[in-house]
Amino acid sequence: MRKVRTAVVGLNMGLQHAYAYHAAEQAELTWVVDLEEEKAARVAKELGCRYTTDWSAIIEDIDAVSLCTPHHLHAPQALQAMAAGKHVLLEKPLATTKADSLRIIHAAEEHNVVFMMAYIVRYLPIVRRLKEIVEKKEFGEVFSAQCWIQAYLPPAPGTWISRRETLGGGVLFSHGCHYVDLLIWLLGHPTISAAVGTNLGTEWMEGEGTAHSIMKFESGAVAHLVTSWGMKYKESPALLHLHTPDALIAFDMRTIDVIDKQGKRTVFGPVDKIPEDRGTNAVFQVEHFLDCIIKGKTPETDGWESLKSHQAIWDMYSFEENHSQ
Ligand SMILES: NC(=O)c1ccc[n+]([C@@H]2O[C@H](COP(=O)([O-])OP(=O)(O)OC[C@H]3O[C@@H](n4cnc5c(N)ncnc54)[C@H](O)[C@@H]3O)[C@@H](O)[C@H]2O)c1
């Protein structure tokens, strides 16, 4: 069977996509693309593919593309690729506005292409196991979730990340969307989504650099999520605590621990780090994308599924707008 000819556009986060396609048996990494020619040339040399600075010039030479570019470019680039009949793996978030997000979703349907959001967290084996634990109520039914995503971005004033319009919001929209998606996937449809945010501590950002969100789900479960790009000092960059009447399930991306009446034990992990040249954590989502293309399946994180987390975040933003005095 012919391999899926792929290109990656944008070679910062996209580098992980490029490594993952390069390592995947079902793909042929055909092109890497970046506006910085030197960067593209270096990656192409390392991975044995071609490079260009103009992705629209190579569109006819590929079957599928990973778009790993700034958020305000997601809609125009995804729409262009889909109109040319290409399958698209789009870095999160969908787009900077709801209207553009819907345009992408409808275009994927109209042009009958595979469209997947790169919700990388969902596809990690440790997260698949966490989902199974929650879904099968292995340690009871979750009634409370607390999640802390504590990152630090060096100040980058004047960049697309610093501007609300090009980022689509603040840290909650850009980075928090992974974890809002995870909470919805684990706990179900949210009936209440609210947040407050600040750019104290991240004054270089127009949008919030730190957000505290609360959610309530149809099941009755409640969640609290902290997301930040201003936290230089922390004990762990990512933590999720799920409480059931009988246990605490503690997850930190490498390990799942359970604390209950039998004491504390590790039920998954610690996970080994995947080597850079295999695409680190991007390898799992890329394999799912390729599988969907080859088998004609709908990705788990298609447009409609991904829109749920985006809508929850837009609701969170509306809460603060409506309650500011
Ligand atoms: N899933 C994750 O963990 C994760 C982490 C970081 C970033 N991201 C996502 O990846 C995407 C890119 O973020 P980033 O941090 O890599 O941004 P970045 O600004 O650091 O890098 C973007 C790259 O794209 C290139 N580029 C910009 N416009 C281009 C164009 N028109 N054609 C070709 N190349 C172009 C730039 O030269 C740059 O090398 C965003 O959607 C972001 O949210 C995801």
UniProtKB/TrEMBL annotation:
Domain Gfo/Idh/MocA-like oxidoreductase N-terminal intervals: 5-119
Task: Point out the signal peptide segment.
Answer: none
Domain of life of the organism encoding this protein: Bacteria
- All residue ranges annotated as the GFO/IDH/MocA-like oxidoreductase domain in the record: 127-235
Q: Name one Pfam family in it.
A: GFO_IDH_MocA_C3
Could you tell me what this protein is called?
Gfo/Idh/MocA family protein
This protein's species is Paenibacillus residui
